[in-house]
Each structure stands twice: as structure tokens, then as C-alpha cells.
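Our consortium's second objective concerns turning raw sequence data into structural hypotheses that experimental partners can test. To show how far this objective has progressed, the report includes one record in full. It was chosen at random from the queue rather than selected for favorable results. The single chain below, 647 residues long, was entered without modification.
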Amino acid sequence: MGKNLVQKIIDAHQAGGSLVPGEEVAVSVDSILMPDSSGTMACLQFEAMGMPKVKTKLAVIYADHQTMQDGFENADDHAYLQSAADKFGLVFSKAGNGICHQVQLERYSRPGWIQLGADSHTPTCGAVGMISIGVGGLDLAVAMGGGPFNFVYPKVIRVNLNGRLKPWCSAKDVVLEVLRLFGVKGNVGCVIEYGGTGLPFLTVPERGTITNMGTETGVTTSIFPSDEQTKAFFAAQGRESDWQPLGPDPDATYDRVIDIDLDSLEPAAAMPHSPGNVGKIKDLAGKTVHQVLIGSCTNSSYRDLMIVAKMLEGRTVHPQVSLGIVPGSRQVYQMIAANGALATFLNAGARMLESACGFCFGSGQAPRSGAVSLRTSNRNFKGRSGTADANVYLVSPETAAIAAITGVITDPRDMEKLYSMPYQSIGLPEKYILDDSMLIKPTGTAEIVRGPNIGQPPKKDPLPQKLDGAVAIKVEDNITTDHILPASGGLMKYRSNVAKYSEYVLRDVDKDFPARCKAYQAKGTPSIIVAGHSYGQGSSREHAAICPMFLGVAAIIAKGIERIHCANLVNFGILPLFFTSDADYDAISPGDELVIENLHQAIEKPQVTVTNKTKGTTFSARCELSERQREVLRLGGLLNYTRQKAS
């Protein structure tokens, strides 16, 4: 029986564990990427392990999130990261060089490799036939030190993209259809592998849009085969020697197969306030638009910006609309400057923004109160834009561009009727501009620079034999890592200062939560979080685990916890448990005292007995841990576990 593409790559990298879906497997790691937002803590954790040099084939740090220098903190982090990169053997991508996923796809992606990134949209590089997985910074630090990455061997879902997209439909509409079919929960432990008759018509940048936003379904990653389209992209990037053909065997099997007819797709949007809330543009037409933002790691490629330039040529932005455009990399910026598209944007009245993550995670470009904002990014969680009552729609560059002109949501297929503009397909350029001067190679000579904002990773004691804690908060379904720890409002600058950042945990859900946890800490009482379905969806933001741990959170009992967040909880010594019945969730109240006796022995079993001393009741919770994760928890987290293994 033949292997699918996912099996081929994982099996070739196996470093331990089991090759059985649903069981834990360990794999060797080829490359690492980290943005500054998670990189500072990852490098501090790497230092804490006492490792002298990075051992993966490649590791790159990107200054792409914390580029708003509204104080010394972000600049401190960048100085620390550049010096740490030099000392430990990482490439450093300077601020202004671009968004990590866009630059990594352009300059460092490799078919057949396994890559980890401390950002949830790391699967972007799956566009070229590599397994690229978003993880927490501590997992990244372990891999940098040569350790394997442990995860659940996935089920593989084959998605056949058949046919060919019609004019004015694009890759964003494809991934929105995937989200409509899959939803944003219930896909943990799966990988999407793309195939079908439509692949020869989808370029690597278009595939990158699909793998990037596939993250929102909750799958481990998404992947395309490496084929002639991949070869053409590598050749245009001057990297044809890095290319190899790679695909599934003809008789490969899959856990599930889904067919999508590209010919039948229409322009779509993810409506407020979830990427899975997908509708058709024609049903939204006429709604007034106040802001349009084009960019992010999802839709900021040369192809995306060139279709927008074609649509804006000779036209101006509607008076009521603020249009911002973000080229995904310095390479893309140089390309549009050289061919005149940049002048087209400026003449149309667009605001050209820095090649950085910016508006996507809420750093700048917050819309006005009650605004409708159309964005080409990947998340529209309530308040993520920086404006609590804004309504954010996620759309294609084509849909964004026509709305910027008309001032209302408009079907891009109306370009021909309204402006006599026929559709113009945008292909790959024959050659991209190649300038890697802002990718700083390590010399091994730098001394570490530590400004006053650079802290230390917090320590966690080993797991006690008895958990006797209080329910500090009870939350409902779909609590994202943005809810747990916001990045907007200038808070990201505290990523390297855990004590300060912890003051904002669950701020927008219950502003008193940090103070309540600290009050429990003062009495020696651990805090427990009770949650509904899909707790921790969204960003890989490991601070959503570090900071609750710092506040004394010892366990989370939920109806469901998303993959990356669940792994991060274990990494920082927080016990994740799952309700077996909704009635057990309903019966718990904030402030209840929950007890688990003989905790070390209890987590050896698939179900744990929890006593609610306040209510005088007991219930069972599922304990879905591998043997390695049990040992990590017993020792108080992955940092302690790694130190012990090293010694």
C-alpha cells in the first residue's frame, strides 16, 4: 500500500514514538522560524537550557510583529534577538525585511523538510511540499537544541481541488470554502493534503494563501505536493537547486476525501466574528465600508498586490474609505516599486504601510467605532482589530480592492460592468528581485544585549501529589488566545516581561481575573480555569500559557482545547483535562473548590476523578496525555524535563 505525502515526510523524519494515527510520534526538525513576538522568550528558554549553538540545519528570527517603536521595549527585544541570533547561530531578518511566513516561503522553504515555527500560520510553507507546523516557543527552543518534536501522528484528509477558478475568484475564496466545509473546531489531530486536477493552475503564492489560512480550521498543518508550479517558483527565486519533486504514491490512502469544484466557487467573505462564519459576497453587497486593509501573511504576495494595482489603475479610493496596503516582504515592495504599481497605489490614495504584521494582530490601523473593515488577513475575532465594536470581514484582494473604490461591499465580478475592466490573470514573474542584504548571517562574535525589558523565563515547581484549587473563572465556547492574552493595544511589547504581561490575562473576559488569581496565590491556593469548547483557538501565543502559569493556574478543565494551546499548557506544567459530560461543566460555579487526590497516579489513567468539595459531588474528566507528557507535567514543564534529560 502506497503512502500519502504526509506519511512520507513524517516517516522519513521519525525519531521515536509511533507511526499510528492518534498516537504520539517524535520527528527530527530541519528548520526553525520565529517572529520577534515569540522569539524573545524562545531564545531566553534556549539560553536557560544551556545550549551553546542551534543544531537545526536552518533557524531564522524575524523582526516583523514588534515594529511599532512606541517605547524602548520593542527596540530592546530586537537588540537582544539580533545579538542572540549572532551568538547562537541564527539568521536575523531585520525590521522592514518582511513578514516571516512570506520571506520564509520566498527564501528558505524546502520540499521534504520538517519546519517548526513559533507562530500559528507557519503552515504557509506547506505550499511547496514541506511539513510546516506552528508550535509554542518552548517546543521551538527544544528543537533548536537538537531535540525532537513530539506531536500526535495525524489523520490525513485529502482535499481535491478540481477544475479551475473563474475570473475574479482567487485562492482566498478557496480557503474560505475549506473553512465553510471544515469549520474552526473538531479538526485537531488532522492534516489537509491537497491534490486534484486544479493544482497545475495554482501558483505557489496562491497555495500559500490556502495553507496559511488553513490554520483557522484547527488542523495541524496543510500541504501541497512539490510539482512543476513549485519548480517554477523556485527558479524565479533563484533557488532551483533547492527544489525536488515530491508527492503521494498513486495508491496512497487517506482517512477522508473531500472534493471542491473550483469552477463553482464564488467570491466569499468570513463575516464577523469568526473565520468560519463564511458567506457569499453577492449576499453582502451594498454594505457601507469604512476601512480596507490589504496585506498580512495570507495575502501580501506579488500576485495579490498586482491584481489590486490593476484594479486601482486610473481610479481613486472612495472618500469615506481608508485604504492601507502592506507588501508582505521587501522583495515584493521592490518589485512593485520597480514596475510602477507603487505609484498606482499612491495615486489612488492608498496608505502604504510597512512590510510587517501590523494590522493583522491589532498593532495599528484600528478602525473607527462601529466600522466595517474589509481585510485580507486570516482572523476577525471580536476586538482583534483594536476596536471592540468593529465588524471585520475577511476577503480576497479582489473583493477588498473594489470595495475601496465603491465604498460598499461589491462583488469583484462587477468590475467589468462598473468600470469596463476585463479580468487580467497575474502569473509568477520570470525572476524576482533578489536582495538578501537584510538577512543578517551569524558570526558567533556578539555579546548578548539585555535592556531593562528583557526578563527571564518563569520557573515552575514539580507537580504536587494533590491538586486542591479554586475555580478562578468559568468561560464559554471559543475562547481564543486573543481573549486569554491580547496582543493589541500596545501590549505585545511586554512579551519579554512576563510579570507585566500577566496583568492582562483574560482582561476582556473578566478584568478581575489576574487579581483573583493573585489573591488565591497569596493563600497558597492554585487557580483552575473551567472552559467550554475550542478553548485556546487562534494564535500559537505561548504567553497564553506562560502568564496563567505565572498567576498560579494549575489546571484547565474544558469541553475542548485546541492543539497548540493544549501542548503549550503541558509545556508550562498546567494540567489539561476534558469534561466527559456537558452536565459536569454546567454544575461547576466560579469559586468552587476542586480536588484531585494522588495526582501523579491519577494522570496515568485515561480518566481522572475530580471532587467538587463545595458542591459535595464528584465527576470524571478525560486525561489525554502521552507518557512523555505525563513526565513533563510531573517535572513541572518542558524546561525542567529538557534540563533533566540533558543532565
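The partners drew two points from this record. The chain has a mean pLDDT of 95. The two ends are 42 Å apart (CA to CA). Both points have been shared with the crystallography group to help prioritize constructs.
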